[in-house]
Design brief:
The complex is a heterodimer of chains A (305) and B (124). With 305 residues, chain A is of the alpha/beta class. Chain A has 2 domains: 3-23 and 258-292, Orthogonal Bundle (Helix Hairpins), CATH 1.10.287; 26-255, 3-Layer(aba) Sandwich (Pyruvate Kinase, Chain: A, domain 1). Chain A has helices at 3-60, 92-109, 121-129, 147-162, 198-205, 221-304, and strands spanning 76-82, 113-119, 136-138, 172-180, 186-194, 216-218. The longest helix of chain A has 84 residues, at 221-304. The chains are: A alpha/beta (305), B alpha+beta (124). Chain A: This is ATP synthase gamma chain.
Chain lengths: 305, 124
């Protein structure tokens, strides 16, 4: 076998191996998207009921709470960025990071100091490489987040917002995550979690202008709100974590699908080149034989005479 | 037919139970409260404790609920809990082991959780 043909054969083998791997990763990601979507759906009843309850307290009483009142002069803000632990997901992480950077820039223009909290190894690596300060980070659960993980993430954030700004607390809490719109579309977006905009929450809970009943609070409206708001933040963070996980798997699936397609194309091109090389080799051999034979025939014809 | 109320018992990551009931007894921070159809709209903070639901078929559903909220309006009752388990989902032996371990380690929160689970399992 000719040297060129051997090289082609070797490349085809290695590309097919890669194709097998990316195909497997695509299928794993596809099954995980479905699982993650199911988890998002399973967490929805809790989130809707909680939103309803928050609206009920917020609109049904005149309670003032640090988590719902806007600071007159906000000077510090916390940004929670949700990325993934693993890459191979196309632009998933860079989109989220870009959105977080834009948000940070905007907040800084408004004269606020920004504390960054990060979930996921990719985001942490990005910030560490640029030697930026991270207030706190969590890794290791982005593929399948549980409610306990959301609680773990929410705890220091709630603590920071309850503290006075002068003592290192924050006035605002923003979250940057990737919304799972559909299998094909995932958008990185930022949202302000706290202070709560009650009118916005109310719209979400009762979009048809439904009037909420006058509740009897047990033990009191303040206590209920005190207990509700941290849970509300946790549930929002949980939902964001789940959506990010679903988006990440969808992005992986898409990236792996195009990798598989590209590998298939490459294999096609390479096998055509290999065929051409083989054919060229055969042609050359034939012409060598024919040439040799006729040279021999010429030589013997000459010696006869 | 007795009046009914619709009950949704939801945990943070799933819906635990939903159906029609005639009476729901839960423990709020200011004491046990029983809700029957037609109750005044109510929003309360739940303590860890067993929740008893008397279903309209005459059966009883007991669940261990660890913190959360009870909200009632328009004959719809929602029980929101971070963690909630039905009594038949609770593994008594495992919980007893957990209780012992929590006692040995002096973990008051874990001890209370295990205790609530056992009480819910005993009430089934």
């Amino acid at each position: 076998m000719g040297a060129q043909l051997r090289v082609y054969k070797r490349r085809i083998r290695s590309v097919s191996a890669t194709k097998k791997i990316t195909k497997a990763m695509e299928m794993i990601a596809a099954s995980r998207v479905v699982k993650a979507q199911r988890k998002v759906a399973a967490s929805t009843p809790y989130a809707t009921e909680l939103t309803r309850a928050v609206t009920a307290v917020g609109t049904g009483s005149n309670t003032k709470h640090p988590l719902t009142t806007e600071a007159e002069n906000p000077t510090r803000a916390a940004v929670l960025l949700l990325t993934s632990d693993r890459g191979l997901a196309g632009a998933f992480n860079s989109n989220a990071i870009k959105a977080a950077e834009q948000l940070t820039e905007r907040l800084e223009r408004e004269g606020k100091q920004v504390d960054t909290y990060i979930v996921g190894r990719r985001g942490v690596a990005h910030y560490n490489f640029r030697e930026r300060v991270i207030a706190e980070s969590w890794t290791g659960f982005t593929d399948e987040p549980t409610y306990a993980d959301a609680k773990k993430v929410a705890a220091p954030l709630i603590e920071a917002i309850e503290k006075e700004t002068a003592d290192g607390g924050v006035d605002e809490l923003h979250i940057v995550y990737t919304e799972f719109v559909s299998m094909m579309t995932q958008t990185a977006l930022d949202a302000r979690l706290l202070p709560l905009r009650l009118d916005e929450v109310a719209e979400e809970a009762a979009p048809k202008g439904e009037i909420l009943p006058l509740y009897d609070f047990e033990p009191s409206a303040e206590d209920v709100l005190d207990a509700l708001l941290p849970r509300y933040v946790e549930s929002r963070i949980y939902n964001a974590l789940l959506q990010s996980a679903a988006s990440k798997h969808a992005a992986t699936r898409r990236a792996m699908k195009s990798a598989t397609d590209n590998a298939g194309e490459l294999i096609n091109t390479l096998s055509r080149l290999a065929n051409a090389a083989r054919q060229a080799e055969i042609t050359q051999e034939i012409s060598e034989i024919v040439g040799g034979a006729s040279a021999l025939a010429d030589a013997t014809a000459g010696s006869d005479r | 037919m007795a009046a009914e109320l619709h009950v949704e018992l939801v945990a943070a990551d799933r819906q635990v139970w939903s159906g029609e009931a005639t009476l729901v007894v839960a423990r709020t921070t200011s004491g046990d409260i029983g809700v029957m159809p037609g109750h005044q709209p109510l929003l309360g903070v739940l303590e860890s404790g067993p929740v008893t639901i008397r279903t309209s078929e005459g059966g009883t559903v007991v669940a261990a609920v660890h913190g959360g909220f009870i909200s009632f309006a328009d004959n719809k009752l929602s029980l929101l809990a971070e963690i909630a388990e039905l009594s038949d989902e609770i593994d008594v032996q495992r919980t007893e082991r957990e209780l012992e371990r929590a006692k040995a380690e002096g973990d008051a929160a874990a001890e209370r959780r295990a205790d609530v689970r056992l009480r819910a399992a005993a009430a089934r």
